[in-house]
Amino acid sequence: MNPLSDFIDSNYFYACKTQRSFEHDLQMINMHKSMCIDKIIVKKWMRDYGLFQGITNKGRDGIVDIYSETIFQLTKGVSSPNSDEIAKQFNTLLLNFYGVVPRKWISAVSKLLWCSYPSSIVIYDAFVHRSLIILQGFYPSLANMPRLSNSSKIRKIEDIQSLVNFYIDYQSIAKELLNLHQSQFNLLRNKYSEQYEYDIRILDKLLWLLGGPGQSFKLGNINCT
Question: With contact defined as beta carbons under 8 Å apart, do 143 and 137 qualify?
Fold first, then answer.
């Protein structure tokens, strides 16, 4: 059995229940499927996720505007992006956002791209990052991938490419981890008749619980609080 299996078994139902409660995510996904952006919805969604902390209202409007102008140009004709396509889209949005408000934007861009590709895009989160750094030492296929580092600092626009490279390594490790546990996820989906359809986001929640200081979780009959 893989090192993470017991943890997944114990916390799968909770992770799915949590994701099902995020109705604002579903609203964003449906909006992207319809190819029609509502800027009010995007702005509220980003604010609710804490993606605008320390940014003026003018800056927030600028980010929403440039995103709304760009996203369908990037995603048109790409239904299931490969790593190169993800890197291209990620790079473009980072550059555009940095041009409005110069900051890292890795979490925001990954979350927004996830709304376009909810089965394919891995969301960046610091707690998940912490979990992946440790888990890379327990799976040979993960250990064979580039060692996950800290995300690059962005001091100038030329630094954005290194942040894109970091994200591609990050999302590759997360996807491989899901691949390793896909049969377990399928069994749990059948066991609970789970309707939340995005396994990559369920894994994200599980790794968030594992890597989050103070986050409660279960392990068999044990409740760690």
Answer: yes
Q: What is the mean pLDDT of each run of 10 residues along the chain (225 residues)?
A: 88 97 94 94 97 97 98 94 97 97 97 97 98 97 97 91 97 98 98 97 98 96 95
Instruction: Give a three-class secondary structure readout of 156-223.
Output: CHHHHHHHHHHHHHHHHHHHHHHHHCHHHHHHHHHHHCCCCCCHHHHHHHHHHHHHCCCCCEEECCEE
Residue 216 structural domain: 5-224
The pLDDT of residue 3 is: 73
Going by C-alpha positions, the residue among 129, 136, 132, 171 that lies closest to residue 151 is 129
At residue 101, the pLDDT reads 97
Distance CA 12, CA 192 (A): 9
Number of domains in the chain: 1
